[in-house]
């Protein structure tokens, strides 16, 4: 067949994959079957581990359109292969969102069904495309998502719901009436059951998957070989260790599945009411919902089983599952563009853009409000794994693999050990053949050399340090669901922090207000509930412009709104359902001054009594609310004072935005200066505005008027100043991180100047450091995208009182505006989310330079936080992320070490969760990570040396057709190796973070030097001992007729000279060479353990590890004892030969020689370090004030830019 063009699924998305088609090939299947039988099943295992080999070995290439199997490969750096079987489904059409056929067809049950999408569509049959009566649809399932064949793109594609390419007007006019029964059944064939199915695998399935791990297969091979060689004891020990490891792993994996299953089971099956096309209401299970169904939201609330857009009414929703904040959010119905001629034109509906109108799966609808006679309706737009919650669960079920240099290097190192084993394997075969050894012995001994070189106990040994670290983390309140990430945390050199609730306290306190009169700021006032302000428009705005509601009698809502409302001491009253039923519209929420403002007060004055009398009749009704929008950065309400004819519009929001919507003559001339003063001090500032509406605006007109018509020509009223205090431990923790050369970055949704101020207060930005704000503007009116650079404030002079914090060891350069400011200065970049998005799209070459010194990223959306983490990882930073909610979920998952300070259910996605909501857990985690990483290096190097030492011993003994005895192997493997490995891993973490990090990989000069030097020393001493013993006067070489090394057997067994030897004699174990090498290697294992067991500066010193010290001393004493003072029973058990040799003395100098090869480790330079060096000699970097960086014209290469100085 001709070579097909390369096809993709999920093109240009995060999970983009290449796709290839294959058909089963019978002759290939026969060949593979024969190969599997001949290889004893090993080929089957190999094909199980390598999906691409499996498909290519059993199938032939075919066109995607007609293939039976698809082969998928991710396009990211991991290039992971998957395969899936293509299935066929009969259907009446190819597109679930289109009417399959406008005429009546007979279906399988014999009933006539009309497939109209809705009642409104039944009269529009002529506009529909006629499709075949019966069609075979091809599809496959990958990672819980179905991919259907799409003729238009000639590839497989995900079936989308109504969340893409559907206009807002169409949602109201075409989809709002619900689906007919026939159309519902047709769509369900495509979308399937509406559930996020996290199936907890059976113990048997998990066991098979775990046991088929390559390491366990190798262990099984080793155990079979040892049993064949009658080496039962160690085989049993390895089996016991493997069983414990497998059981522990199964328990952890199953526990995680159960946790995830319980998390998503809350909405799995509930009963819901849906509208059918003929206006009837049907009650169905939530699992039967499909996109296009119109469901009714019950007045007492529900857990949402899908993503749906609100068509009518209002809902109060708790979205803590998605946002991490247990703050009730008010959702209003999606406006119908066709009903508002003056409104902005029709737009495509998007759950992200229209989140104020979207009810997300898994969120809790607390209560609803509705018009009389109208039901609260919502249109289902996404179901199952396509929902927001489904995508979150998918990211947990199928995470991206963790790429860590240690693990890559470990596999390379093992590969090199396999090569060494190969040489030993060939040497053994050749040597045995030359000495005419029986074939069975050749096979066993040659295979045995492989199990010696690649130790089967390595996985268990490597896991020990991580398990101990996980246990220590649990004791300090940090829970881990991904133990392998602990090692990676030891390499973190940059940590991103959320601001609110992480660096600062959760709550905001009202610091004061500053009103404006006659376009001038008055003096700041501490209290807003004074007598003179009671009936002011300023207080009226504070009382009405919020999204607070009462839930079971308790005032709930955004913490900022709550603080603001509590500061004026007013009362909020909502209409009951009975009151609403008496009117044709929703009864307004009413706010009025509290009675506590006067008579109950003990020190009430006459004036206050008069105030109370006046206030009893003063009420304000909130007629309409335009909710807060993070895009618009404001909210607005229309209200009316009781008894007045004209209504008022009140608005609050970001000061810059509010000021731009006000009449310029009402905004004070020093507005920017006053605002900057507050933000620099770290205050959160909110501006208020007011406008008296025209008397012609009636109740009904207000309900349909557009937001833009209200939010203009406002009168600026002043500022509310809120204080967000730093957490007590924040500055000290950040100082510890800076001293350890760990960069800190702030990623927040708050105002930029406020974020910069907090960064200065907590020590993230030092007093003498420059802050350069990058303001990026997208292309507009034919102009290219550009970045305007300006400095946030003047350069502060260095003072002796500035905190002594050693900042990240990245080279800095001279930054100065004038000769007076000439000094060595560190600079930081700050930008908001909009600028970050523009830079990512139009200035890709600038991204590495900006993230190298970027410290403050403000107004960042959740997906932008993830993009920032990826950008930092692209320049070789090991990134940690610390956040307090699931809105940081993407970044927490993507970072090398994500730490959630919230124990809410969404934190299941974060590798680490801290029980205490404090960033003090970050340095603790890094310390434990460094200790675990160093432990892994120690254990790996020790196990590698153990293999090489034993390999040298056995190879030397094979040269004389001897070997170590079973109990010698057992003593070495159990009494020395396992005891040492499991005790040397017990060293706790060092008490403080130091400025350097442990190495990240095994393949580095210092580490290789350390290992190779020990190998050379061990080889030299064993070889020396092997040949030295032969030079002794008492040495007698072994021959078949000799009893030189079997004196004890000769005394006890008279038949020894008649060829009736014991098993030990047959294997020629008890000889002088064996005994010499056994004692030398035993000391070498212990000395190597001491040499490689590192303490400071990442772990506590070895002498504090009591069990390790005790084990080594006991083993040393025991080996010295049996060597210098032979005990017949022990000699017989270990099969050693007593002699006058003095090998022990030869080992005294080894520790000293080993120490000569100690190498100081130095972390190799990463991309960000190289980039920092390049920027030192770049005359155009950092950008100077009053300059603009402009993108080149689109015809040129994307990401290029040029500097243009703006005068």
From TrEMBL:
Keywords: ATP-binding, Endosome, Magnesium, Membrane, Metal-binding, Nucleotide-binding, Phosphoprotein, Translocase, Transmembrane, Transmembrane helix. It holds the Pfam family Cation_ATPase_N. It is found in: Early endosome membrane; Late endosome membrane; Recycling endosome membrane. It catalyses: putrescine(out) + ATP + H2O = putrescine(in) + ADP + phosphate + H(+). SUPFAM superfamilies: Calcium ATPase, transduction domain A (SSF81653), Calcium ATPase, transmembrane domain M (SSF81665), HAD-like (SSF56784), Metal cation-transporting ATPase, ATP-binding domain N (SSF81660). The keyword Magnesium applies. Residues 13-150 form the P5B-type ATPase N-terminal domain. It is a multi-pass membrane protein. Its EC number is 7.6.2.16. It comes from the Eukaryota. Its main location: membrane. Residues 271-396 form the P-type ATPase A domain. One of its GO terms (cellular component) is late endosome membrane. Residues 169-226 form the Cation-transporting P-type ATPase N-terminal domain. Belongs to the cation transport ATPase (P-type) (TC 3.A.3) family. Type V subfamily. This is Polyamine-transporting ATPase 13A3. It comes from Junco hyemalis (Dark-eyed junco). The lineage of its organism: Eukaryota, Metazoa, Chordata, Craniata, Vertebrata.
